Every structure is written in structure tokens, then in C-alpha cells.
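Researcher: We plan to redesign the surface later, but first we want a full-length starting point. C-alpha cells attached.
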């Protein structure tokens, strides 16, 4: 028997446990092992029924994504065709019960649905998350799921990609029972009872795929398309999943699964699939830091101190208590603490109104935040996150105070977004415990956490920060201590280039339109208005941008700030905002831009849409390449993860560095050289970009060579 599958017999029931750690993916050998064991069990007269489950922490989490990745890049043997296995399970005379704990995802759920019955652990989850990888279910999930849960729910699950919990799965008809206590014992009992009952056992494929609520198929499809357009704009897989589900409703099962297979094949070789699979593995790779491993001694964090109860401090506090970590929230004045707590309560109220939390859950969470104006109890916390105003003197003062009020070994983190971490660390006697934890606003929502290592930050301190990031549901990316770190440093050339474009004849709305058409969640002028023009203004001055002789600085942004146009918060910035907070072009701004450009003697012209995207994007990518060659990011894929999780870069393009690879580094380099000739020194290509372009290599290959 294969070591990928454990087989035992319990009271006349064959219990097969898939044993392919860490997540029991359907790697080569697993489907074959299941098929062989089912065949043996079906023939064995001592076996009345069969239970299939997962060994370890989960059921089957899907097809092996490494195998899909090979396929996406045109290599390997291709995705497994599970049709014969699923039919074998469904057509056998003895009942097959799927016993599910952990997650039944993708191919895992597809295998589960071919069973005659499904018994779930109370905390099990079920999903068809293939769209997250740019594909659709490829093992008859789009055919069996609507037959079990109805067309509407199937569309929601296959288009949205979000898993459902056991209770919801039971209500929807996806599972037959939730185990009371031990899953294996419950499933064996269920299987033995089904065998004793005899008769034909239900085959999912023989059910009908219909709506569960009144209305036509067309209306249900329209709702699915609306969800796809809203939640997964510009992505092709969700629409193909809809097409496959439509086939389930209109064709025979035999025709339907073949249609699904065709659509699956179309998706798996697409650019979007390659990009999304890249993002999947990039996210997991980001946590691997040379010198920081499982054996790095890192104390667990059971209590956090936060200094600064403003928007960031409050959001960080919410992120911690949402993960069950109690917080001491300190600010200098009682009024600031009260204001911070009021904002936290208000945020939670919105979640209650939206049905995400109950009032009891909120009360429990708010109860875990202890507001205070001194450092009482800070000697009992394992981690302090400083989130005071972005001012070096103030931050140094706080770190000096923390040195006295915390115990040795406490990790002292700064949430600075732009200041020099080593200078902050100089105010604390234990610089090895100092680290940057740069959260993104709103901190309780945004997934990105830039973890900034200073000159002296120890491996243990990095391990603590990475551990906390995982615990509070963030993607921690370790970066070096350069100006603006990775994300904001790349943002500067992107933002400035957009401003230069409007000074040369484009308009803010034209630039924003092209950037959102490219796939960014928002255009850069809208982002600037949302963040506050004064914020960038202050940073620009503090970091001394454009002070070197001959440097071209943006003309209009400072002027808008001087006019008090700080963006959304003042109702006016690059755009003008009404009650609905939607941006509208402002002729006054356009007039100002044209006037200032004329005074500065900047020639005006029209821009091609493609040129707008290239000017903005290639500036960002060039800066990313510089960051990489200077060692402030460990990998190009880390930069992608920063941009996918903190800046609204379209996931289906895989991140800016992956996008550059898809354009081709030779072309990117050539365009940057042209821009350098036309526009000057700021477009000097990064050495690394030049080197890779000349060697006809990609950033992906660069990462792979360095990790080998
Ligand atoms: C599919 O099924 C297509 C079918 O319809 C058609 C077939 C014909 N394969 O996330 P973690 C690795 S598409 C290979 O840190 P967690 C992961 O890389 C698939 N590897 O753990 C990591 O490796 P490492 C549909 C996988 O506990 C390790 O496992 N399924 C796979 O936070 C731990 O992962 C999905 O999309 C896989 N399928 O979360 C599920 N899954 O340690 C994708 C994980 O070397 N997976 N790995 O870095 C997940 O959502 C999460 O991993 C899961 C566990 C929730 C399972």
C-alpha cells in the first residue's frame, strides 16, 4: 500500500487516510492510492463501508499547486484528471463517507462531493478557491456543487472563492452531518449505519442543478456576473466558472464535466493563472528569512503595548484583539485615549451593522483593550508597537521611555512609515530588540505589514515580528531600512511621474482612468487625495526631495497644499468632493496646472494611453530593481507581495516585478533608456535591470538563482 495513504479497518469499515503533509494535496500518487484502496475495499467481503479522511491537520486542500504551476508554465505532466476516480467512488456499491476536518478545498471538495455522504468536524471549512489561482474547479466541482447546494450558492462559492464553515455547509446541503465529538468515530458510525440500511446510496451527479430561490437561470447568472464584476474585476476565471455552472444547469453531467475541463484548460495556461500562482507562492516565500528559522529562539507574544491611540494605534489594537491578543493602549493625554477608544468602538459598530460581528464579540474585543496614559503594566508585555506622530524627536523620546518601562528582551517596534529606524533605535539601549512594523491604514483591515530590520535587529526580534504578523492575519514582508522602505520608496517616482504627466498635458482624471483600467484599485491622484496631500508634502520636505541642483520637482502639489487643498478631508485636492465623497474634476486645478506649466516653459502635448501607464509603472519598477540590487528587499517576489497587499496593485498581474517580467525586461529596459534620453537623469536605469535585460533574464529567474 502507498505511504501516501493509511488504511485501517474499524468495525467492518475501511478507513482510508490521505497522508501527504502538510495539507494532503492531491499530488501525483495520491489519487492513484485512493483509487487502489477503494478498489480493494469494495472487493473485501469483510468491509461494509468506506470512510475517506485526511491524516494530520486537514482533509484534502486541493490539487498540488506546484503541479498546476508547472502546467501554467507549459511544463510537467499537466493537472490530474480525476474523472475516473470520482466515478469509481460514486459508482461503487458500498457507501463511501467523506470525513472532513480542517479544509476541503478545490480538488479536495471535488473528491468529497463524489462520496455518497459527507460528515464534517464542527470547525471544518469547504471551498472552491480556484479563482484565487486564476483557474476554475477542474474536477467536476462546477458540476457537482450546484447539484448539492443549488446554482446561486455554487456561483457565490466558485466566483467569490471564499470557503464556508461547517454549519453553513450543512444548511446548504453540502454536508449530511456535523460530527458530535470524534470525527473518525462519527464517520465510521455513519458509514456502518448507511451500509446496514442498504439500498442505493445517493450519487451527486444524478441530482439536478437548479435554483434554490425563485427566478430564472438568466437572473441567477446575471447576479453571478455582477458579483464577478464587483469582487473580481478584470479577472477571467470567475466568468469561466459561471460558464461551467451554466453548463451544469443546461447540459447532461457527461457534457457538463467535459465543458468544465475545456474551460479549466483555457484558464490554466493564461497569464492571469501564472500571475496568481506566483502570488500564492510568493506570499509563503516572504516568510522565509535567511538566518531566521524554526530554531530561532523567539518568545511568544501574549500581550502587546501600543503607544499612540490615534488612527494607526487604534487600528493596530483592533488587529491584535481580533486575534485574541490583549492590548495596553497608551497615549499622553486622557482626551486622546478617550478619542481613540471612541473611534475603535465606532469602527466595531460598523462591523456589527454589516453583520460581521455580534455585539457580544465586540464587547469581548473592546474589553481586551486597556486604555491608559502611563506605562503601567508595560513591564509585562512581550511587544510594544509605537504609533505616535511621525516625528523623529517624539519617537526617540518614546523609545527612551520604553527602555525604562519594559523588561529586557521585549521587542520594541516602531510603526514609522518614513523615518530612519536606526536613528530611532539609537534612543533605546537594546537596539537588537528594535524593529519596524509598518502597518497600512486601516491597520485592522490591510493585510500588509512591512517588517523593517535595522542595522542591529536580531534574528529573534525578526522571528517575533513575523510570528505576530501571522497570528494577526497579516502578510509580513521583511525589508531593509531605506528611505520610505520598499512600498513608499517605489511610490514616490510613481506619484511624481503622474504629476509630471499632467504638467506636460495629461489631466489627473485621464491618468487615473488609465491606471484603474490597468487594474489598480484607485488612480494615484485619488489615492493622494485620500491619504492627504499634506502628508506627502511633509514627507517631501522632511526627506529633502528635489533639493539637488537641476532636479525637476513637481510644480503643482506644493501649491495645492499652500491653497489648503489637502484632498478628501478638506473637500478639495486634485479633485473636488461633494457629499457623496466621489472625486470630480475641478477646472480650477486644471487651469492652475496649465498656468504653472506655461510659466515653467513645459511644452504641452497629448498622451497615448499606453504611454501614461508606461511612464507611471516603469518608474515604479525601476525603483524596485534598485531596491533589489541594494539589498533592501530580499526578493523581487517580496516586492510583489508588498504591492499586492498594501497598494492595490491588481492581483491578477502578479505584482509590479512579475508584471515587468510579463512585459519582458528587455522591453522595459529599452523604454526606460528612451525615457532617460527624453526626460533626464531621474530615469537612469537600475544596474540590475540592465544586467537582467542584457542576459535576457527575468526577475523570477533572478529570485530562483539566488534561492538555489
Ligand atoms: C485545485 O484544487 C484545482 C482542482 O479544481 C482541479 C484539479 C484537477 N498544493 O498556507 P500555508 C503548501 S487548485 C501544494 O502556509 P496554512 C504551502 O505552499 C487548489 N502546496 O498553511 C505551504 O508550503 P511551505 C485549490 C500547498 O495552514 C504549506 O502548504 N486549493 C497547497 O496557513 C502550508 O501552507 C487551494 O487553493 C496545495 N494545494 O493554510 C488551497 N496548499 O510550507 C490553497 C498549501 O513550503 N491553500 N500548500 O511554504 C491554502 O489556502 C492554505 O495553504 C491552507 C492552509 C488553508 C490549506
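Model: Full-length starting sequence:
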Amino acid at each position: 500500500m502507498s505511504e501516501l495513504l493509511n488504511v485501517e479497518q474499524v468495525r467492518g469499515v475501511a478507513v482510508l487516510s490521505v497522508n501527504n503533509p502538510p495539507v494532503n494535496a492531491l499530488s501525483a500518487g495520491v489519487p492513484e492510492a485512493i483509487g487502489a484502496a477503494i478498489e480493494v475495499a469494495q472487493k473485501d467481503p469483510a468491509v461494509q463501508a468506506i470512510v475517506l479522511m485526511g491524516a494530520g491537520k486537514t482533509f484534502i486542500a486541493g490539487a498540488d499547486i506546484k503541479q498546476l504551476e508547472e502546467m501554467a508554465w507549459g511544463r510537467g505532466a499537466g493537472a490530474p484528471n480525476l474523472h475516473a476516480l470520482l466515478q469509481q467512488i460514486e459508482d461503487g456499491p458500498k457507501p463511501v463517507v467523506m470525513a472532513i476536518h480542517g479544509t476541503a478545498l478545490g480538488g479536495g471538495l471535488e473528491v468529497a462531493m463524489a462520496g455518497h455522504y459527507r460528515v464534517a468536524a464542527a470547525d471544518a471549512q469547504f471551498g472552491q478557491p480556484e479563482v484565487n489561482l486564476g483557474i476554475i474547479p477542474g474536477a467536476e466541482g462546477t458540476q457537482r456543487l450546484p447539484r448539492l447546494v443549488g446554482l446561486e450558492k455554487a456561483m457565490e462559492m466558485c466566483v467569490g472563492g471564499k470557503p464556508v464553515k461547517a454549519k453553513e455547509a450543512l444548511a446548504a446541503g453540502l454536508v449530511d452531518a456535523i460530527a458530535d465529538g470524534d470525527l473518525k468515530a462519527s464517520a465510521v458510525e455513519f458509514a456502518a449505519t448507511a451500509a446496514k440500511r442498504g439500498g442505493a446510496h445517493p450519487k451527486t451527479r444524478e441530482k439536478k442543478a437548479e435554483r434554490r430561490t425563485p427566478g430564472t437561470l438568466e437572473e441567477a447568472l446575471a447576479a453571478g456576473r455582477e458579483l464577478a464584476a464587483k469582487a473580481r474585476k478584470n479577472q477571467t476565471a470567475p466568468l469561466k466558472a459561471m460558464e461551467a455552472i451554466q453548463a451544469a444547469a443546461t447540459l447532461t453531467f457527461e457534457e457538463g464535466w467535459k465543458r468544465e475541463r475545456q474551460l479549466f484548460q483555457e484558464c490554466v495556461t493564461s497569464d492571469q493563472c501564472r500571475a496568481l500562482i506566483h502570488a500564492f507562492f510568493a506570499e509563503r516565500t516572504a516568510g522565509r528569512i535567511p538566518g531566521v528559522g524554526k530554531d530561532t529562539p523567539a518568545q511568544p507574544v501574549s500581550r502587546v503595548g501600543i503607544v499612540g491611540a490615534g488612527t494607526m494605534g487604534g487600528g493596530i489594537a483592533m488587529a491584535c484583539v481580533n486575534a485574541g491578543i490583549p492590548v495596553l493602549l497608551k497615549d499622553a493625554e486622557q482626551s486622546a485615549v478617550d478619542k481613540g477608544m471612541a473611534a475603535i468602538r465606532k469602527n466595531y459598530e460598523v462591523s456589527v451593522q454589516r453583520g460581521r460581528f455580534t455585539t457580544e464579540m465586540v464587547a469581548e474585543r473592546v474589553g481586551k483593550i486597556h486604555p491608559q496614559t502611563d506605562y503601567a503594566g508595560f513591564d509585562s508585555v512581550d511587544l510594544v508597537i509605537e504609533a505616535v506622530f511621525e516625528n523623529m524627536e517624539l519617537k526617540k523620546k518614546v523609545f527612551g521611555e520604553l527602555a525604562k518601562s519594559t523588561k529586557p528582551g521585549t521587542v520594541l517596534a516602531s510603526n514609522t512609515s518614513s523615518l530612519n529606524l536606526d536613528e530611532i533605535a539609537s534612543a533605546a539601549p537594546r537596539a537588537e530588540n528594535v524593529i519596524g512594523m509598518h502597518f497600512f491604514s486601516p491597520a485592522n483591515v490591510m493585510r500588509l505589514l512591512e517588517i523593517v530590520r535595522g542595522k542591529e535587529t536580531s534574528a529573534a526580534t525578526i522571528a517575533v515580528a513575523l510570528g505576530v504578523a501571522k497570528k494577526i492575519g497579516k502578510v509580513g514582508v521583511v525589508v531593509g531600512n531605506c528611505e520610505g522602505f520598499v512600498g513608499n520608496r517605489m511610490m514616490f517616482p510613481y506619484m511624481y511621474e503622474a504629476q509630471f504627466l499632467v504638467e506636460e498635458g495629461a489631466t489627473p482624471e485621464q491618468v487615473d482612468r488609465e491606471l484603474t483600467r490597468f487594474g489598480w484599485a484607485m488612480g494615484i491622484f485619488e489615492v493622494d487625495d485620500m491619504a492627504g496631500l499634506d502628508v506627502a508634502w511633509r514627507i517631501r520636505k522632511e526627506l529633502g526631495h528635489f533639493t539637488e541642483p537641476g532636479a525637476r520637482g513637481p510644480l503643482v502639489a506644493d501649491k495645492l497644499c499652500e491653497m489648503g487643498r489637502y484632498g478628501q478631508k478638506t473637500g478639495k485636492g486634485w479633485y473636488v468632493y461633494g457629499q457623496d465623497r466621489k472625486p470630480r474634476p475641478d477646472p480650477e486645478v486644471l487651469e492652475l496646472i496649465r498656468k504653472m506649466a506655461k510659466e515653467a516653459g513645459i511644452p504641452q502635448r497629448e498622451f497615448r494611453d499606453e504611454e501614461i501607464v508606461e511612464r507611471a509603472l516603469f518608474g515604479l519598477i525601476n525603483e524596485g530593481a534598485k531596491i533589489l540590487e541594494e539589498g533592501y528587499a530580499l526578493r523581487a517576489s517580496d516586492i510583489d507581495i508588498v504591492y499586492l497587499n498594501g497598494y492595490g496593485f491588481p492581483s491578477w498581474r502578479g505584482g509590479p516585478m512579475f508584471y515587468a517580467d510579463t512585459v519582458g525586461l528587455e522591453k522595459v529596459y529599452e523604454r526606460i533608456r528612451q525615457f532617460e534620453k527624453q526626460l533626464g537623469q531621474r530615469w537612469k536605469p537600475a544596474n540590475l535591470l540592465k544586467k537582467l535585460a542584457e542576459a535576457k533574464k527575468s526577475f523570477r529567474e533572478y529570485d530562483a538563482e539566488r534561492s538555489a
